[in-house]
Amino acid sequence: MTPMTVLSVLCLAVWMYLFLAHGRYWLSRPELAPASCTAGSPVDVVVPARDEADTIAPVIASLLAQDYPGPFRIFLVDDNSTDETAQRAGAAANLTIVDGGPKPPGWSGKMWAVSQGVAAGRAPLVLLTDADIVHDPRHLSSLVAKLQAPAAGLASTDLVSEMVRLNCASLAERTLVPAFVYFFQMLYPFVRVNDPRSKVAAAAGGTVLVRREALERIGGIDAIKGALIDDVTLAKAVKSSGSAIFLGHSRLAVSIRPYPRFADIWRMISRTAFTQLRYSAPMLVLTVLALTLVWLVPVALAVFGHGWQRACAIAACTLAAISYLPTLRRYGRTPLWVITLPLIAVFYMAATVGSALEHWRGTGARWKNRSYGGG
After folding, report:
1. Distance between CA 191 and CA 201 in Å, rounded?
2. What is the pLDDT of residue 28?
3. Whole-model pTM above 0.90?
4. 277 with 187: CB under 8 angstroms?
5. What is the b/e burial string over 13-33, where b = at least 16 CB atoms within 10 angstroms of the residue's CB?
6. φ/ψ of residue 182, rounded to 5
7. Which CATH code fits 30-260?
8. How far is CA 140 from CA 137, 300, 348, in A?
9. Which of 37, 119, 352, 356 has its CA 20 to 30 A from that of 371?
10. Across all residues in the chain, what is the average pLDDT?
11. Backbone angles phi, psi at 89, to 5 degrees
12. Band of the pLDDT at 374, cuts 50, 70, 90?
């Protein structure tokens, strides 16, 4: 066989593995359904917030409106905001505003805020949620019910997390947000995350419910104080301690943070993309090569190849297209968007390379007026 034929067969083999043996990631499951909990254990809800005046009011209002049978208290940690975040949060009997202290060396900004919120409460369950997530009134009960449900081979689950529904209104969001969710599922197949026998662990930072004793077992928030990809780092620490974890999709929580421009999503990706690769140049090269093999080579060979080259490439492209359909349906997008997936992959690839360049230049990505990942 010619080198191009070998390459086309390799592309097809990779896609057959991804489609058939990679944790069925593309099914875009499981989903946390609404449920009621049998016992309302006390919950501390920790909301780290820095310059979130535009979103904080509906977020806190949705948390205060939770239909939960047990006591819960909301700790809004105002992380040195320069706007009216704390004032717009309002006031309520079970809402405590924590004025965040100066960030110590070695801490990421979000983890320092989370640490102060966790320390302010004593409840056995802790819900970590972002300052741009609006919650259905049934959400907290559903999360606690899932945490209390028996886990395979273990008495219970110690961490429940959800990929909340992301904003998908602008052209940039409609183009890139479903792919973001799809790529996250590919990187961390939810079925494997939820399998206690698998070492794959991940969480989605918008919603993480965790037992306080599980946090204490891993050394508290201090154990992950410098993490920039804090949700995945926390999930790995909890799961490696012997706990069961759950990651699913949510129909009960929605992010209201807008990304109106392609540049906004670029910055969101580049903030942690090179961190994901552990700031490794060899890993960056391997990642670019792998993405090229998976997304670009099949398209090129389907157009310019001949015989078996084209046949294998078309089969690989077909599997890729089918795998994207469930995520498109989740976000109400037409199946025609599958055509854009290779171009979207190029966008994410370029943002990852851009993340590395920012790190090597020593600037790092910026988020909430803080620099991250500068080398």
Report:
1. 10
2. 96
3. yes
4. no
5. ebbeebbeebbbbbebeeebe
6. -60, -45
7. 3.90.550.10
8. 7, 48, 33
9. 119
10. 93
11. -70, -25
12. low
User: Which residue in 346, 347, 345, 365 sits closest to 355, CA to CA?
Assistant: 365
Which structure tokens are listed for 68? 């939960």
Give the strand pairing for 133-135 and 244-255: antiparallel
Tokens of 132: 């741009």
| 374 vs 147: CA distance, rounded Å | 37
pLDDT digits (tens, 9 = 90+) for 163-180: 999 999 999 999 999 999
User: How far apart, in whole angstroms, are the C-alpha atoms of residue 267 and residue 163?
Assistant: 20
pLDDT of residue 367: 59
Closest CA to 45 of 84, 95, 5, 112: 95
Q: Which residue has the tokens 């790092």?
A: 364
Which residue type does 231 have?
D
- What residue segments make up the domains of the chain, in order of their start? 3-25+264-372, 30-260
What are 323-329's contacts with CB under 8 Å, separation 24+?
A: 323/18, 323/19, 323/26, 323/182, 324/26, 324/178, 324/179, 324/182, 326/26, 326/27, 326/28, 326/29, 327/26, 327/28, 327/178, 327/179, 327/181, 327/182, 327/185, 328/178, 329/28
